[in-house]
């Protein structure tokens, strides 16, 4: 009796599952196989110990609107000479691998670009941002760039009068993914709304929420639920790190994308692959914690580049080679007023290093290394300050064209909570990836503090001549496993330290 009752109860409990299993259509099963196969083949099995050693090629995987430009313009461009830059980083056409022996790629390309790069000698870095903030920023930037076209009387005239870039090195925002899709979309929309307003078809909205002024700009809620936003923006970081954007180099990327969009639960596979990739990266930065991130980036990447600057005689190049390669390297500049200054900034005063012919020959001492490093950081700060000024004025100029809409930090607070919730749900993979990145960031922080101490000791007791880069790397290499071991032990002992720090960081950010 008892048994029968139990059986009946368990059947009742199991019934929904049984029914569900049989009602799942084939395509879920097919899709799961496709996505699973992709995930298996994408799993990383690189040794973690040497992930902190900067390899010959640095791939900066730039997720749009995470502030990567600052690292590129103000740091990497001063660290690497132009001829070390792989041609047409950020280009309209796909990445061009015709230039051998370049050392740096900065691109909005997704992780699948790695399939075109020498994987064993490539380090990857990236920056993540709070997903909700990133969506806001994508929206605002798309509108802002599109609004610049409103100087034209109509869309036809905006489309026909193409602004020619001043030099072949300039790449317009409109040629760069994802802006080449988002800006034309917003541009068309802005002109349509202006026309409708003129014809009296759109009533002036009361300006309480600038993210919802439909007589001027596509409201945010309309933007985030549009198919293009689903295609490009939502979970964009996870897809980019997983190598699954619309412009992936992977053959089965389109099928995997289609499957994940049809069956959102399969997104977990994407997330796991993306997390694994972050784990292997040389550096993961945070937009929200820019100062700390930049300092970390400088000590992880900058110090290693500087310490090697005298290592290989083959690095020595006469000045003329620099000039020849200027034409093949791309620079993202869209602002006419800023072109002159930006260019001067990025080509002129550089601290580098790899082709530095001015400094005396000889070994890099710890002292010299620190001097160069500090010099680099000063240049960085100046550059950041300048670029903020330029951006602020451009921002104001663009916003004038869609007045009274004015995107400010304060205005974001007026957006209803329900919409923020919706943005979080639409970006659930990115939310999780962001949380994962927070714990990586914490580990980096511990590593760096230790590393800083070591460098300081070295700099203070200089009599040691460092045979760069070997000694420096030796230091890193001996230090890193130790610290990693320490982290593992600590984390095992108390899971909660991590969460304590994460919570603390959240509060601070
Ligand atoms: C667009 O503006 C240009 C320049 O003012 C004008 O010549 C053209 O007729 C306009 N086109 C339309 C469709 O209104
Ligand atoms: C996606 O890729 C296809 C084919 O590569 C292209 O035609 C389409 O314009 C792209 N769409 C977006 C939104 O990226
Ligand atoms: C550089 O260091 C190596 C090894 O410490 C030493 O043999 C060499 O003489 C040094 N060269 C110069 C120019 O100081
Ligand atoms: C937007 O708001 C900022 C700060 O409140 C203000 O300084 C700026 O002038 C405003 N811009 C426009 C175009 O209204």
Automatic annotation (TrEMBL):
<protein>
    <submittedName>
        <fullName>Protein-tyrosine sulfotransferase</fullName>
    </submittedName>
</protein>
<keyword id="KW-1133">Transmembrane helix</keyword>
<dbReference type="GO" id="GO:0017095">
    <property type="term" value="F:heparan sulfate 6-sulfotransferase activity"/>
</dbReference>
<feature type="transmembrane region" description="Helical">
    <location>
        <begin position="472"/>
        <end position="491"/>
    </location>
</feature>
<feature type="signal peptide">
    <location>
        <begin position="1"/>
        <end position="23"/>
    </location>
</feature>
<keyword id="KW-0472">Membrane</keyword>
<dbReference type="InterPro" id="IPR027417">
    <property type="entry name" value="P-loop_NTPase"/>
</dbReference>
<feature type="region of interest" description="Disordered">
    <location>
        <begin position="311"/>
        <end position="331"/>
    </location>
</feature>
<dbReference type="GO" id="GO:0016020">
    <property type="term" value="C:membrane"/>
</dbReference>
<dbReference type="InterPro" id="IPR010635">
    <property type="entry name" value="Heparan_SO4-6-sulfoTrfase"/>
</dbReference>
<keyword id="KW-0812">Transmembrane</keyword>
<keyword id="KW-0732">Signal</keyword>
<keyword id="KW-0325">Glycoprotein</keyword>
<keyword id="KW-0808">Transferase</keyword>
